[in-house]
Amino acid sequence: MRAASVPVNTRSYNERMTVHHQTFDVAVIGGGLVGKTAALALTQGGRRVALLAQTCASLPAGAAFDARVYALSASSQTLLERLRVWQALDLARLAPVYDMRVFGDAAAELHFSAFQASVSQLAWIAESSLIERALDAALRFQPNLTWIDSRAQGLEVKPDAASIGLANGSVLEADLVVGADGAHSWVRAQIGSKVDRRDYKQTGVVANFKAGRPHGDTAYQWFREGEIIALLPLPDGHVSLVWSAQTEHARELLELAPAQLAAEVERVTQSLLGPLECVTPAQGFPLALQTVDRLIAPRVALVGDAAHLIHPLAGQGMNLGLRDVDALADVIAKKEAFRDLGDTVLLRRYERARREDISALMIATDGLQKLFSVPGTVARAVRNTGMAFVGAQPLLKRWLVSAALG
């Protein structure tokens, strides 16, 4: 272990005492679900981990649900179970998806069934804050985890370690730095990874509603005039809206009063779930496709949105990030004893393990978004004919479900 020369102004998350070590095996920069899962997976793997992130914010007073939800695949569930996070979730706030119905912009419809695909469920719908609070609780009991409440503002990669300067004046050293700091990643900028970003000129509008009719644990999706509307099941007869709308239209939706927004969602979904009551304020986030030329650099690895950004139409962005974490943890667990954690040879194994999965999902989601954005009756006929063809192929649908499950 390298000697610590200057005390680091950090606090241990288990609140035993102020920690004076400034050397770690891994420093994870960035919180959220992916960063915290990475920190938990690596510290449970026996590594000394520093996590530069904030704790999960509380829900607004009176809020029934978090407006931001995720559709977690089987691979994400398996990872969270292995980390003993899934078992700590409040099951009453999770909703299974047993069926999915997708409506084209003509008469075509696709139906995916967990029963027909021989799986327990297609996905679980979970609030972002529900998972993050469980991660915070798990991290609290990790003796090798140090939670640092300061922002990174300098990164220097040296032959024997990466040196991280903090806003509070302290300096950390780590064998490996994991960048989990989102689409506008500071870590990614420090290593000079080139970013190719294409703005979809759309905004994802999210809100939750009480539905007048039972959703039957079914996820619904509509393609309408280049926009995509999804209603995802939540417990107790609630549904979560994810409306990928053109930016100007999204601005109009966000300005609507709750009752007006509910009425508009009822209209575009043809009142399939009956009258809707808006129970959380609508929020919006920009949509883009973003790729990077490399996921690694000496002593640095990128995960989650720092490594890729895809359209939310398939609900796979979070699952993709959690698979990054799983792959990185696996590569580190299997490393040769003589290799350093920051060894480029080791990190290239992680990059190779992730490239195909990331590329395939990017191509699929971007292709679907483009396909349903092309105007005209000919384009509409072609894509709806394609949907009808897929709907008539049970083996193809089963393969699509298997791919989505990860």
TrEMBL record:
Its EC number is 1.14.13.240. This is 2-octaprenylphenol hydroxylase. GO terms for biological process: ubiquinone biosynthetic process. Belongs to the UbiH/COQ6 family. The gene is ubiI. InterPro entries: FAD-bd, FAD/NAD-bd_sf, Ubi_Hdrlase_CS, UbiH/COQ6, UbiH/COQ6_monooxygenase. It comes from Paraburkholderia saeva. Pathway: Cofactor biosynthesis; ubiquinone biosynthesis. Its cofactor is FAD. Residues 24-360 form the FAD-binding domain. One of its GO terms (molecular function) is FAD binding. Keywords: FAD, Flavoprotein, Monooxygenase, Oxidoreductase. The lineage of its organism: Bacteria, Pseudomonadati, Pseudomonadota, Betaproteobacteria, Burkholderiales.
